[in-house]
Predict the 3D structure of the following.
Amino acid sequence: MGFDAFNVGPELEFFLFRDDKGTDVLDRGGYFDLTTLDAGSDVRRDIVLALDRLGIHVEYTHHEVGPSQHEIDMRYAPALKMADDCMTYRITVKEYAMKYGWHATFMPKPIFNENGSGMHTHQSLFKDGRNAFYDAEDQYFLSDTAKCFIAGQLKHAREISSIFAQWVIPTSASCPATRRPSTAHGHAVTARRSCASRSTTPARSRPRAWSCAAPTRHATPT
């Protein structure tokens, strides 16, 4: 279609439990806790260093909203490379959790009445070295290409979910009044986390990416 690159930047979330026999959490920390409330800071650091040695660049890492829940964000990369990197990431997280005597799970909703895990995915198309989603003259700084891209994902949200959200468990993570999308809708300028597709307000001179979250989250339960 004439595009140079399709870049994606996923935000994978996971839980750390004391073992694989239950959901006994390691801490009661919250979003971005950096104190003793975050029992997983050392293992996250080790995971980041291991990923770097494997050629996978990490941009951010922090404690997530749920107890013993964590997030390590990889820097965006071409889609095919990122698909491989995601699989390497999952194995690395699980291996280092085992090294600490813990169990890591990417299950979408392992604990009732707590935030589930997800994988927001930032996406962008490039053409002639420029972000094809960006239009400085548009009200929302979105090009026609971006609008068509978003419309296509929303139109085919059910079909897409049948591939990357095959299990029953992800549905329980997507309910009203949470930070998870429960319907296939989007918003051009929003801070709402319940949109399946969304874009935040950019500086006028900054190229943009589009963030997509499946209405029913992860494909894999573990």
